[in-house]
Amino acid sequence: MPELPEVETVRRGLATRGLGRVEAVLWLDPRMVRGPVPGEEIARRLLHQEARGAERYGKFLVWRFASGDGLLLHLGMSGRLEVGVAPDVPWAPHTHLVVLLTDGFEVRLRDPRRFGRIGWVVGPPALRVGPDPLAPDFTARRLAQLVAGRRRAIKAVLLDQASLGGVGNIYADEALWRARIHPATPAGALDERQVARLHRALRAVLREAIASGGTSFRDYVDALGRPGRFAGRLKVYGRRGSRCARCRGRIETMHLAGRTTHFCRACQRPAEAGDRPVVMSTEG
DNA sequence: AGATGATCCTGTATGC
DNA sequence: TGCATACAGGATCATC
């Protein structure tokens, strides 16, 4: 469930409260582990590591240690990270990782569906994750390069983590609504103004969502257990059948890229014949 | 290259 | 009340 704003909010919680030295690894569920390093080995390597902060790569988190190694985490659909938990608090169901720190508090990972993952990284992680849409160097020009010549639906491109890191179903729909672009528009058919609008919309909605601590529908809470406050500001996601805030049209849904897609047919028009796509050099 | 469907899971909401 | 079904903030793999 968590997308960039939720993962970023969790990252901040982990960076703030996941400090000190690892005193004990009380539980690490091997079913959560992906990658070459097995769970037992991860648990062994975690012991006595000194936490130094947390990084985010798209929807991935790395809990970084002074040694330069890090614990790689992905929250999948239903994952929650809990920091600053007192050891006398009973483990919630589906708790797959429990790390005791020298400050006396624990870091725990819960994930009922187990779509998330745990791994070990040495140095920077090797992940198929594209540029971060909030990075200073993610310009409209870079977005234009990303969509140029591609026939895939723009929403599919936004969701493709190898193209762009961190955008999920909620914020893809929200950004496209803000930019007044139909989700099924072939990416390469977007004209320069549409790309500029999408770039602006994407960054704005992600920034605003982070400022609100993310979006909570059911599961999601941040590392301190607080729900996000952005749900009330969503314009299309989860609003099928209600009125478009911009044109009073009806919000509808369709299936695209395997996901339920929310949009307003009236103000997110499909591309028309005669629209001029952005053509860019593929060099560089 | 890209679309689609299946797969990995449990929890919750709905419809009968 | 029970039971069946659909669906969910994700990612990956096989198949066409």
CATH architecture of the largest domain: Orthogonal Bundle
What CATH first level of the largest domain would be assigned?
Answer: Mainly Alpha
Report the sheet with the most strands, covering strand number, pairing sense and barrel closure: 8 strands, antiparallel
* Poorly predicted parts: none
Stated plainly, the CATH topology of the largest domain is called Helicase, Ruva Protein, domain 3
Q: How far apart are the first and last residues' alpha carbons, in Å?
A: 35 Å
Question: Could you describe the 3D structure shown?
Answer:
The chain is an alpha+beta fold and 284 residues long. It folds into two domains: 4-122, MutM-like, N-terminal (N-terminal domain of MutM-like DNA repair proteins, Alpha-Beta Barrel), CATH 3.20.190; 140-264, Helicase, Ruva Protein, domain 3. The chain contains six helices and ten strands; from the N terminus they run αβαβββββββααααββ. The chain has helices at residues 4-17, 39-46, 140-147, 154-159, 169-178, 192-211, and strands at residues 20-28, 50-57, 60-65, 69-74, 80-85, 95-101, 106-110, 117-122, 251-256, 259-264. The strands form two sheets. The chain has an eight-stranded antiparallel sheet with strand order 5-7-6-1-2-3-4-8, covered by helices on one side. Helix 1 (4-17) packs parallel to helix 6, helix 3 packs across helix 6 (192-211) and helix 5 crosses helix 6. The chain is elongated and about 65 Å long. The protein starts with a helix and ends in a 20-residue tail after the last strand. The model has no long low-confidence stretch (mean pLDDT 94). The protein binds a DNA duplex (16 and 16 nucleotides) through residues 1-3, 6, 59, 74-78, 93-94, 111-117, 150-153, 156, 159, 161, 168-171, 214-220, 237, 257-260.
